[in-house]
Design a protein that fits this description.
It is built from 10 helices and 2 strands. The chain is mainly alpha-helical and 225 residues long. The chain has a two-stranded antiparallel ribbon. The longest helix has 27 residues.
Length: 225
């Protein structure tokens, strides 16, 4: 994230707290839990980057842990979580970002295993270097998996989150090309607080949905007088 270890620490703590509340809200709908846990994951990610700042970058355990979450984990987690939570009508089209996420995650995992990731403090940002080849297709697959799955989710709140993540990606690339992945992950973490509203919306709708199912069953099988 931009600015300092303190900024990452404060942001990570706040977003993690929102993540805990979001998971609690989604507890009654198991299909929503992977997506509800995303702010918790991204909050922890910011806390890990605070440790990267503290160690002045380098290639230590904090840098590796940060890269594992940012690179192979997120492009797999997000489309899979969106697919779990999506309504049935949207699931077929979500297979495309999921396939992109699987391929991108596999390529990035292989890169992490065969190369050393390093972090460098660059003013008020952190830059990560992995020496990737074919950067263009990898970034395209990454954004299709993460932002694309949200935009194709069929849910208005998740679509809003996708739009916010896309704006964050555009701003991060325009201002910090060399530090794009760090600054975009930070903006995505902040935007993910939208999921708290999403989980609350689903929580309030759950009892109504259950009641409507009971009414539907009763209408199909009326009691005999």
């Amino acid at each position: 994230m931009c600015w300092s270890a303190t900024a990452d620490l404060i942001a990570g703590t706040g977003i993690s707290a929102v993540g805990i509340a979001t998971v609690a809200r989604a507890a009654r709908r198991p299909r929503d839990l992977p997506l509800a846990a995303l702010p918790l994951l991204l909050g922890a990610h910011q806390l890990i980057e605070a440790a990267v700042w503290h160690h002045n970058g380098g290639s230590g355990p904090a840098t590796t842990a940060w890269a594992v979450i940012a690179l192979p984990l997120l492009p797999l987690w997000v489309p899979a979580a969106v697919l779990c939570a999506a309504p049935p009508r949207a699931r077929r089209r979500l297979l495309l970002p999921l396939a992109a996420g699987i391929a991108t995650s596999a390529a990035l995992a292989y890169a992490l295993v065969t190369r050393t990731v390093t972090a460098e403090i660059r003013g008020h940002t952190v830059g990560y270097t992995l020496g990737l080849s074919h950067t263009g297709p990898t970034v395209t697959g990454y954004l299709l998996a993460t932002i694309g799955s949200l935009l194709l989710s069929g849910d208005r709140v998740l679509t809003l989150l996708g739009i916010l993540a896309a704006i964050g990606a555009a701003v991060s690339f325009a201002l910090w090309q060399r530090e794009f992945i760090s600054t975009w992950c930070a903006s995505a973490a902040v935007a993910s607080v939208v999921l708290y509203h999403w989980a609350g919306q689903h929580h309030s709708a759950a009892p109504e949905t259950a009641a409507s199912r009971v009414r539907d069953r009763r209408s199909r099988h009326p009691r005999k007088p």
